[in-house]
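hey so i finally got around to running the thing on that chain from the lab meeting. sorry it took forever, my laptop kept dying and i had to restart like 3 times. anyway pasting the input first so we r on the same page abt which one it is
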Amino acid sequence: MSAYFGARNPNHELQVKEIVKDITGMPVVCGHELSLELGVYERAVTAVLNAQLIPITHHFVSSVIKDIKRRGINARMLMLKCDGSVYNIEDALEKPIETIFSGPAASLLGASYLSKIETCAVIDVGGTSTDVSMLHNGVPEISTSGAVVGGWKTRVRAMRMETSATGGDSHIWVSDDMIHIGPRRVIPLCVASAQYPEFAGRLKKSRNLPRTLMDENYQPTKFFLRTGYEAAGLDEQEEELISAIGSEPASIAEISVLLKKNPATKVLDSLIMKRLIQGIGFTPTDALHVLGIYTQWDVNAAEMGASHLSRYIQKGKYEFCAHVRELVARNMAADLMSFILPHHPEDMIADLLNRTYPAKFKLEIPVVLLGGPVQAHADELRSMIEAEVVVPDFAEVGNAVGALAGKGVKRIEITIMPASIQNPDEDFLVFSPLGRERFQVYSDAVDFATKVGKELVLDYEKRCGILEQDTQITVSRKTISPETWPHPPLETRVIVVGVGNPMMLLKD
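ok and heres what got predicted. didnt touch it at all, straight out
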């Protein structure tokens, strides 16, 4: 629940919370407990989304805890938040919305831990997307506007991040003598060949398609198979098409033969969006297999795919794959510079990266790369941007490392205001997460706010299993007053931040 000015005076929210809990016996979380920022609408949206996530999180966490106990592991369990800090399971069950985007946050922390660099930009290349973010002195850069969840603007403090649809599994396809990357994810040809014994033979027999038909779905290297999800509510065209696709990969040409006509690409798109069929196609991972840089799966299948596609742009298969590799690095560079320069046009960034002008970007902070075979793109990135590009050891598991490296960070803000403008030298109101208090003397109000802030921080760290001696606490004040104002500030914010390191427990 959320109420007007609940971030300033939460007493009314807390009273309603107790009434609702007594009546329903269900968990209740107030808007001010999720954010102390003004904006009643955004706080209300945050509270509603949080409530919807509580039963899902309870089921997930209960399953994890059950499995951990079954394995004989007796350890404290923490969860990572979207700002890169950790919190205990009890808080996670009450405020699950704070775990959104925790995956990218883990990668950011893992990059810093593995590279031993505390101020850097991080490019995390996954199978589906590339995420760009930044650390300052070991702390993720936080979005000032709040995270957007499912299109809804919230007050959740989350790391600032730039995401693009370029990853190791992005679909590489050709049309109009051009190479396109994504935006869809497909199973790489090299992986599909290892999973389906007859796939390589079908890929070898795949025939060329007319250039006029070619789009993202009509490719000589594009195959489809059923996902196993139950189909419901399909129209006649979707029913007809999905009946021609089975659990084994089928090329677009084979599907056309079964239907006795070319399937409509919009119907294929619809079935993909409904997750009823999965695409298989050429990817950056396949290109690296052809170039001999990364050869974990079937190199032969990747080479056949490169041979099919390279004919359409008059290139050899190795030249084709080298170009794909360069395009991926250029996309990474564009994502990075769009993040660094958020108010600059994309065309300007593209012109500099394409060497249209005799100029080049230069970064004064290191760039750390994470994920799979990112080493393959490091040299191309260095050629496009003047920066220290670092690929740390174990970059492929940076996300898992970051989940262990998260710190217990708690920030408490307490506001102090005069009870009356007519008498600003005495009688002050203190608004804290515990409610509202009143003091006659300004210094007493500040002392109380500082004391309560420290107690709340230490209580939070204790619930995370972090000892007081392993917690660093800083206290700062921000004040607002008119010029030449001779009285105590019109508004004072006492900000108490505690940083605890769970890793200290492991060392002990």
